[in-house]
Fold this protein.
Amino acid sequence: MTDATVVMPMSRLVERVLNAAVCGRRYVLGIAGPPAAGKSRLSVGIRDALNAHAGSVIAEIAPMDGFHLSNAVLRASGKLARKGGPDTFDVSGYLETLSRLRSTPVGEPVAWPTFDRAIEEPTPSGVIFDRHTIAITEGNYLLLDDLRSGSWSGIRKLLDECWYLDADRNVIEKRLVRRHIRGGMTLAAAKAKTRQSDLPNADLIAATKSRADLVLQAYNGRYHAIAQ
Ligand SMILES: Nc1ncnc2c1ncn2[C@@H]1O[C@H](COP(=O)(O)OP(=O)(O)OP(=O)(O)O)[C@@H](O)[C@H]1O
Ligand SMILES: [Mg+2]
C-alpha cells in the first residue's frame, strides 16, 4: 500500500457504476487482476449492492473463468499443467460472447458459461442474462495487450470501464497455496503450482495494471483506490 489511497466504500463504487451506466444498452464493467486477488468476491459485492440499491435485479456477473478450456482439451494439447495461463482459455469464445452480451437488447436472453471450481470445469449456460442492464465481467486477462497472447487485446474495447484489483504478491501466494490444498494437492505440489504457474501469470497481469481506469486494493477490510 502507498500513502496515496482513498477509501472506496461499496456505496461509492455503486454510485460510480450507476452514473456511468446510462449508455442506452447493457453496460459492461470489467474487473481484472491477478489470481486470488479477490475479483470474484468484489464482483459479488458490487452485483449485490447494485441490485439492493435498485430494488430489482439489474446486474449479473459474466466470469471470464467460464471460458476455461476443458481438462480434456488441455490434456490433449499438453497444457493441463499450465491451466490458468492466457493460452488455456477460449479467448475467441470470450470475445464473441462478450460482444454479443454488450450489443444484444436488454430483455433478449444471452447465455454465459460459468466455472465450477469443485470439478474445475466450465458449466455451459451457467447464467442467463436477460433484463440485466449491467454486466460485470471479471478475470485475469481482461487488460492483456500482448500480441503473443492471441486476441486478448480485443477485450479492452468491449469494456465501458475496467477496474484492476491489486493484492500483495505474498497475500495471493498464501491464498493460492491454500486453494490448491483444498482442491486435493499436497503442500509441495500446491507450492510448486503456485510458484511455477500462478505467480508468473500474476506478473504478466501486473504489467497490464496501467490500462485500468481505477486501481483498487483491499486493506483492513475496505477497498481503497490507489493513485497510479
Ligand atoms: N478483501 C478480502 N479480504 C480477505 N480475504 C479476501 C478478500 N478478497 C478475497 N479474499 C479471499 O481470497 C480468496 C480469493 O478470492 P477470490 O476467489 O474472490 O479471488 P479471485 O481474484 O476471483 O481469484 P481467481 O482469479 O483465481 O478466480 C478467497 O478465499 C477469498 O475469500
Ligand atoms: Mg475468481
